[in-house]
Amino acid sequence: MDLSVERPWLRSYAPDVPATIAPSEDSLVDLLRAAAGRFGSRVALDFFGATTTYAELDAQVTRAAEALRRLGVGRGDRVALVLPNCPQHVVAFYAVLRLGAVVVEHNPLYTEQELAHQLADHGARVAVAWDKVAPLVLDTAGATSVETVVAVDLSAALPRLKRWALRLPLPKVRAARAAMTAPAPGALSWERIVAAAGPLAADHPAPGPDDIALLQYTGGTTGTPKGAVLTHRNLRANAAQGRAWVPGLRDGAETVYAVLPLFHAYGLTLCLTFSVSIGATLVLFPRFDLDQTLDAVRRRPPTFLPAVPPIYERLATAARERGVDLTSVRYAISGAMTLPPATVELWESVTGGLLVEGYGMTETSPVALGNPVSPARRPGTVGVPFPSTDIRIVDPEDPSHDRAPGSAGELLIRGPQVFAGYWRRPDETAAVLLPGGWLRTGDVVEMDPDGFVRVVDRIKELIITGGFNVYPSEVEEALRRVPGVLDAAAVGLPGAGGSEEVVAAVVLHADCTTDEAGIRAACRQHLTAYKVPRRVVVVEDLPRSQIGKVLRREVRARLLAG
């Protein structure tokens, strides 16, 4: 680490958290092998009660790797995964890596156009897809390099009794079966090709730490989807940083709930790599469902829960109302959006455990900062830099110039988890990766004397009205204080003289009687005049990412379109 960088945050670390982590020369494949060696008989995966031990998982991965090898997958090839959370997703992820190939994760709810754009960009010839969306992937073949689609039947991973129940000729059962699986003509069967394959040869070349492990598509700082290149070293480092950040974790004794999608960087690292690194049992949910999650709590109580604020609010409220015991959850990590202090208070009162907020982006594998997992945490901040991670706060117009202590500026990050660049986009890579290994985040932050960081807003979403800077999050915070306002998004729309107007889209309670004038008047109590929305548009819902984050770019586009 560069000793010229001052690190006031080190004194804010929880006890026993190291300042640095040792770099690993192993790959993610070695991560799974180590877990199978140490915890072979421990349950690695739980899917609605169907369990897979670490020894069984390792064996399934070697068979799946051989099946993919027979399809022509080799070192450096990209393989598209278009899957919800399920055991087959975990197996496919590690099988692709075992061949030295590259995983590319995709949201199975994407439209054909969204999928085609990404598939054409990375050039995968093989795709492993949920059978319900496999026809969609097949339809992209003319515009992409995809030659082979392997369809995954989620119901095949269910417990035997549940699989049998899905055959019953009842309307409710038919609906449940249709929601989980569907015919995929033209695609190969994942279950059949894996069953027909023997184990991959033990001497098959394995990947190295600096080989590419993952292409994860992200809007980055520009909003244009592009593949972030993450190496085995990047992802192993972030798993090790997460392990070091929570010294109270017990290897081989934790239970992690995968309520976040594995196809998102946040869910992927916290569930697919971090969980394996500590030999945890991973309880998989195809999507977050409140009833399914509470049923699982009774069967296999969680001890560690990575999620987003709305999930914590819904779980804690429902658990309290239904008398479900959540006190097994000792640690909970929140990310992707602002964590309200009221949510922290509710969650900790129900569980007795800690809920802390962190910060990251796809380009940092994804976690770079976190609140100490101790009473020293500071709600309202995203915490302090992880071990082996440095930060600077700079002038957004001249990132070579550091801002004065306490001043807001753009956050730069440097550490072993920082990505290798954007897939085949050298100009965009050069724009965000600066000399010395510093990553431009595009986020405006402030840091207090103890190293705690508060996110002010995104540079690209800054609203400039009458020459003044308006941060959307500040406006949204004021709007959410208005009685009857459920949620809000503030954006800048073209105004007179080349300036912008602050315009807000709000979601209201069904019984809300406050009108636009009343909302604007209430905002004036908390905002200076130029920050008060000129217009307030009532909408039924706000567009969100797959993990629930409001997409301001889409809000702006919809408002512009009327």
TrEMBL record:
InterPro entries assigned to the protein according to its UniProt record, in alphabetical order: AMP-bd_C (IPR025110), AMP-bd_C_sf (IPR045851), AMP-binding_CS (IPR020845), AMP-dep_synth/lig_dom (IPR000873), ANL_N_sf (IPR042099), ATP-dep_AMP-bd_enzyme (IPR050237)
Superkingdom of source: Bacteria
Statement: the UniProt record of this protein carries the keyword Ligase: yes
Keywords, ordered alphabetically: Ligase
One Pfam family cited in the UniProt record for this chain: AMP-binding
Domain AMP-dependent synthetase/ligase: 33-423
GO molecular function: ligase activity
Residue stretches making up the AMP-binding enzyme C-terminal domain: 474-549
Transmembrane segments: none
UniProt name for this protein: Long-chain fatty acid--CoA ligase
Organism: Micromonospora thermarum
